[in-house]
Each structure stands twice: as C-alpha cells, then as structure tokens.
C-alpha cells in the first residue's frame, strides 16, 4: 500500500468518524430535549434551540419564534392556572432518520409520551401521545441546536380507552 493510498484511507476514516460524531451529538441533543422538558428544566429545554429558532406544536402551539416563546409555551403547559395542564410526561424519542449536510442537518423522529393531563373540568387522566418531530438543525459554536421544529401529534388518547376506541381525546371537556 502506497503512502497516497494510506493517506486517502485515513481521510475517509476521519470523515466517517466526524459524521458519526455529528449523528451522536444530534441524538444526544434530542434526548436532552426530552429529559429537560420532562424534568421541568425549561431553560435547558430552550437551550436545545438556536436563539432564533422557529416551529410549532400542532395543535397546541400554532407557532413559536425564539427561545422566549419556547419558554412561554413550556410554562403555559405546566402552569397551575392553565387547563388543560400537562402535569407529568415522559418522552420516548425513537426511530431517528438524520441527514447531515455540512453545518446543517435534518431529522425525523417518532415519539411516544405517556402523560398525566389535568382537563379543563379538573379531572386528571392518564394519557398517551404519539407523534413525529420534523427538525432542522444548525451547528453552532455551542454544538448542534434545533433551528426549526414541527411537532405533529398523531394520537392522544386516555390510557384505559386506547387508540382504537378513542383516536383523539378531548382535553377541553
């Protein structure tokens, strides 16, 4: 093997290692996103986003722009005076498809989240949420961050009813 061949192989291995390091960093970012929200560490949650991040949590938040609106949304979901209120949630973020292009990346993730919801009438219910995140990422001086995120809710249903009999529960009743 010539020195040129060895150099080319080394460059290829370094590129592959950098790619896998980026994949792991993006996965870690999304895991921190879930843990931070679940543990009410909303400043850490907002720090998963760029300063000027945009997105939406349809149908619960039609749109947000910037970290302050992200924080406002988090506090609104957990505020004692807000109903319906998300009292407890555990995010399971799975099945990522991540594509990296230089300092930007995109990702699709399925998610499942068992939760406790306090409805507008005061009743507390155990519920399940299923959905998908469509995310655009940006590499920043602080590592990978979420630049834009769209959260789609496919199913939200009471635990005992299941998704067949109750495809989308009413949180407002």
Automatic annotation (TrEMBL):
Domain called SnoaL-like: residue spans: 21-148
Superkingdom in the source lineage: Bacteria
UniProt protein name: Nuclear transport factor 2 family protein
Lineage of source species: Bacteria, Bacillati, Actinomycetota, Actinomycetes, Propionibacteriales
């Amino acid at each position: 093997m010539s020195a040129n061949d060895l150099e080319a192989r080394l460059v290829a291995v370094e590129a592959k290692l950098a790619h896998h390091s980026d994949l792991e960093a993006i996965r870690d970012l999304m895991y921190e996103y879930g843990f931070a929200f679940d543990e009410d560490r909303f400043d850490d949650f907002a720090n998963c986003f760029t300063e000027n991040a945009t997105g939406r949590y349809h149908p619960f938040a039609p749109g947000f722009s910037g970290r302050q609106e992200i924080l406002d949304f988090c506090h609104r979901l957990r505020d004692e005076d807000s109903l319906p209120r998300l009292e407890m949630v555990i995010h399971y973020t799975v099945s990522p498809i991540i594509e990296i292009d230089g300092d930007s990346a995109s990702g699709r993730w399925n998610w499942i989240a068992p939760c406790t919801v306090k409805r507008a009438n005061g009743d507390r219910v155990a519920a399940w949420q299923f959905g998908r995140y469509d995310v655009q990422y940006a590499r920043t001086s602080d590592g990978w961050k979420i630049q834009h995120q769209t959260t789609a809710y496919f199913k939200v249903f009471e635990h005992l009813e299941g998704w067949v009999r109750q495809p989308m529960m009413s949180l407002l009743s």
